[in-house]
Amino acid sequence: MDSFKGKYERVSAENYEEFLKALDVNFLLRKAATVSTPVMEVSEEDGVWTIKTSTTLKTMELKFKVGEEFDETTPDGREVKAIVTLDGNKFVCEQKAKKEGQKSTKSIREFNGDECIYTMTIDGMDLVCVQKFKRV
User: 75: how many CB neighbours lie within 10 A of its CB?
Assistant: First the structure.
């Protein structure tokens, strides 16, 4: 898992705007998110993993212990119960919405050498968003 650690820059994004739209993210935030080039930094200390994603506008931080459920407010404002599990070279994060009518999501960060493939889906929808990051 040490191989996961490092800094990555986004090099491509498929269906990202459609994904954000499906989560009811407003137009301005969608535009800002899709034109930015986020840098994702993966680190770990004492069993606590941190995935920090930074753009010029916003920095989001995901802190977790593998296999332990935690409360999270997603970047788009949903209150969720989240759990991150390890599946080989993948961090699998499941976010279950706490509020009725809000969407639950699943994201997988797959680490292959100097690349991280970040796949996001929304429960009950066929939409798949894939972002690729390269180690910097």
Answer: 16
Whether the model clears a pTM of 0.85, i.e. scores above it, the answer is: yes
For residues 35-62, one letter each, b for 16 or more C-beta atoms within 10 angstroms of the residue's C-beta and e for the rest, the string is eeebbbbbeeeeeebebbbeeeeeeeeb
How do residues 24-37 score in pLDDT, each as one tens digit? 999 988 888 888 89
The single-letter DSSP state of residue 17 is: H
CATH 2.40.128.20 fits 2-135, yes or no: yes
Q: Where are the domains of the chain?
A: 2-135
| Angstrom distance (rounded) from CA 136 to CA 123 | 32
Alpha carbon of residue 107 to chain centroid: 6
Please name the amino acid found at residue 124: G
Q: What one-character-per-residue DSSP string does 82-108 give?
A: EEEEEETTEEEEEEEESSTTPPPEEEE
